[in-house]
Amino acid sequence: MVSLLRNQKVRNALLQVLYVGSIAAMVLAGIAIARQNLAAQGITSGFDFLFKSTGWDLNFSLLPATANDPYWWYFLIGIINTLFLGTVGLTLATIVGTIVGLARTSSNELARLLGRTYVDIFRNIPLILQVFFWYAVITHLPTPRAAHEGWGFLLTSRGLYIPFPNVSSAALAAATLAVIAAIALPIWLGRTSRLSLPVGQRGGIQLACAAAALACAAVVLVAGRLADLPLLDFPALQGLNLRGGLRIPPEFATLAIAIAIYGGSYIAEIVRGGFKAVGKGQVEAALSLGLGPWRVFMLVRLPLALRAMLPILANQYVWLMKATTMGIAVGFTDFFMIVALTINHSGQTIEAIGILMAGFLAINLSLAAIFNRINKAIALKGNQLRG
Amino acid sequence: MEMVVVAPPALGKIEDLRRRFFATPLQALLSLASLAIMVFLVWKLLNWAVFSAVFTTSGGPEACQAAAGACWSVIAARWRIILFGLYPYDEQWRSALACLTVVVMTVLSCIPAFWTGRRIALVWGAGTALFYVLMKGGVLGLPYVGEEAWGGLALTLFIFVTTCLIGFPLAICLALLRRSGLPWISRTTGLIIDGVRSLPLISILFTFAIVLPFALPQWLVGDKLYRVILGSALFFSAYQAEIVRGGMQGVPSGQEEAAKALGMRYWQRVGRILLPQAMRNALPATINQFVISFKETSLVIIVGFFEILASGNAAYGTGEWRFAYVEVYAFIAFIYFIFVFSLSRYGAFLERRMSVGER
User: Fold this and answer.
1) Which of A205, A375, B3, B34 is most buried, with most CB under 10 Å away?
2) Which helix (H) or strand (E) holds B120?
3) Do B214 and A349 touch (CB under 8 A)?
4) Are the C-beta atoms of A162 and A152 separated by less than 8 Å?
């Protein structure tokens, strides 16, 4: 026996079995105890509960939801809510971050100072504090009767009301698709090898395609509007309440604003780092070829900076996607909050935690996959000189 | 032949300003716009926070609410709740002293003289012990105060310090395990690290605070505060382990081979060759991770702890000060800002200092 332990191979195998075995044993013991405890409370384990109706309501949902709907439908709504909030928040954060990041890299000292102040302030205050702050600000806005008003927008404690096209939901979906096509088609045209036209001369076609798609969107919106109503539906006071327009609930607005401002400060630093990584020699070469500042920016600095910042940006996006779980602080029914509510109401603890892990794993992995593809697509081919 | 270098003629002040801010029309526009934004914001902020603000408590909440600017009297009236939470009034000096201990501890660990494994462990171990004794009492004539009465800044700092104290050694263990030559050990550890990293911190805190008691035998459940600290330490260590591993990858393999050739055993190689160099490589990222996890301690409010953010909510949440939420949040944000900003500035300084030798 002792001589067996002296054998390195045996010892290594034993060590591995012990390590993996003890971790597996701990996890299995935990699950077994949990099942026992839950069974004592009359909760049977298993995924049957997914098909029972929930019996509680959601305060925010993009899809129709009632208390009679089964749990699996609620989980789906939760994921869609998380993705929707994430997409809106990430888009806004990217816009804010790009502007601030460009200010930080500009040659103008005052703009740099302004950008730096922004980043220093908002990066160093925890996100959840900012969420609480904006929630307090929004819920302390005046009641609908005394709402702040401007350009058809209304700010009230019940949410932000914005003008909205008076169209059927089918027409709205079609118009959204057309707008996506207006962005995607020119990109595809610029890359495809099916056209015989050289890549550099496709600007006209790209522009025409985008214009056609946008025109389609406009036509669909005008044609699909509801009869006898004006094209844009403005929110207005009727009695004690506001009618018309699109209401953005305070919870959603709070989270979108907080993620945009906080995430923007991080993305600004990534943007700045990306531009700093562009070799000085390349910019000087472009200048000496006679390119103006705008073309140096568009043709040399931006494409190179984009490549440098994309991997870090992907990490940041994953982080911000996870930050949508702050929704539970203000009562926005994101995926995590729905899981927490499920545990409260149904007691299906182990299953709900499993679904939570699977959901976030899926979200993170798909984000990573998307960014890997983009990264691969725009990576410089071959051994080109850099720096 | 001697070369004569003539300095360019010095520019006048006005010419200098023109070149810096008004070189082209676009630059001029940008400068003016930035200046306008800055003046506007600074004026608004100063007017709100200083000129039209109320500083004294004498008028009470009513006089304060009528003022156009900030109502700092809410801070004057409620600062004890914000900083110390529900800690007994007569014992709050202990809570303050405990916070000071953490500050001293952090400052000490920023001094290079303390950057050896033993000294840093000594500083943090002794500091945390002092903090714990001061807060909890029950010895040396200090009255006993249970964890359920802790709150405010002291609770925030306690969670942060214990998270780091448990998380840091755990991170080094995880990094070593992930680097292990035994495939199943490194794979399992990798799975744990990546699994924890893919989850949001809130969900981990929630699991440890509320779900875990179901999955543990009765004698292991323990206090909710310590479960949450364990969860937060696990999360910290998963991130920190990847940072340490990155640092280890930066150590040339010749170092370890040389140590092996000298006949050093595994723990000697790790403790004397690998870790000191790896930690040096990983230092800037480590400080960044400390900064992030300090900000993330505020998430424990979700699982029902009375840390500084929650005590701030309580400070304005009751009746008379309800209108003064901006001031309270500004005060808490300022406290966070002081801690986080100085730490991250220090990190940036260190990064610059350490990169000097490498160029």
Assistant:
1) B34
2) helix B117-136
3) yes
4) yes
ipTM of the complex: 0.86
Compare all CA atoms of chain A with the CA of B36 and give the residue at the minimum distance.
A110
| Total of domains in chain A | 3
Tens of pLDDT along B113-170? Answer: 877 778 888 888 888 888 888 877 777 777 777 777 787 888 888 899 899 889 999 9
pLDDT at B359: 43
- Tell me which chain B residues have a C-beta less than 8 angstroms from the C-beta of A366: none
Can you list the alpha helix ranges (DSSP code H) found in A154-235? 169-191, 203-223
Cβ distance B294 to B335 under 8 Å? no
**Cross-chain CB nearest to A34 (options B214, B332, B333):** B214
- CB proximity B35 to A under 8 Å: yes
Q: What tokens appear for B329 in the block?
A: 């949040």
**Does some domain include residue B325?**
yes
Task: Tell me if A243 is assigned to some domain.
Answer: no
Contact (Cβ atoms closer than 8 angstroms) between residue B67 and residue B50? no
What whole-number percentage of chain B has pLDDT above 90? 12
Of A30, A111, A325, the CB nearest to B203: A325
For the ranges A303-317, A342-356, B38-52, B309-323, the lowest mean pLDDT is seen at: B309-323
> Does the CB of B186 have a partner CB in chain A at under 8 Å?
no
Q: Does an H or E element contain A376, and which?
A: helix A349-378
In degrees and rounded to multiples of 5, residue A160 shows phi and psi of: -100, 130
Determine how β-strand A164-165 pairs with β-strand A153-156: unpaired
Residue with the larger pLDDT of the pair B21 and A22: A22
Query: Residue B231: is its pLDDT beyond 90?
Result: yes
**Which CATH number goes with the domain that contains A371?**
1.10.3720.10
CA torsion, points A356, A357, A361, A363, in degrees to nearest 10? 10
Predicted TM-score of the model (pTM)? 0.84
Whether the CB of B211 is below 8 Å from some CB of chain A: the reply is yes
Of B182, B199, B344, the CB nearest to A357: B199
Give A229's pLDDT tier (boundaries 50, 70, 90): low
Rounded Cα distance between B163 and B235, Å, is 9
Q: Name, of A163-167, A374-378, B3-7, the range with top average pLDDT.
A: A374-378
| Domain coverage including residue B146 | 71-351
Nearest residue of A to residue B19, measured between CA atoms: A108
Q: How does pLDDT run across A320-334, given as a tens digit for each residue?
A: 888 888 888 888 888
Q: Do A356 and B203 touch (CB under 8 A)?
A: yes
User: What are the chain B neighbours of A17 within 8 Å (beta carbons)?
Assistant: 184
From B37, B211, B329, residue closest to A129, measured CB to CB: B329
Asked if residue B51 belongs to a domain, the reply is no
- A218 with A342, same domain: the answer is no
Closest CA to A350 of A43, A60, A42: A43
**Does A125 sit within 8 Å of B333, measured CB to CB?**
yes
Contact A265, A92 (CB under 8 A): no
Give contacts of B296 with chain A, Cβ < 8 Å. 126
pLDDT of residue B12: 76
Query: Is B356 inside any structural domain?
Result: no
pLDDT digits (tens, 9 = 90+) for B273-324: 888 888 888 888 888 899 889 998 888 888 888 888 888 888 777 777 777 7
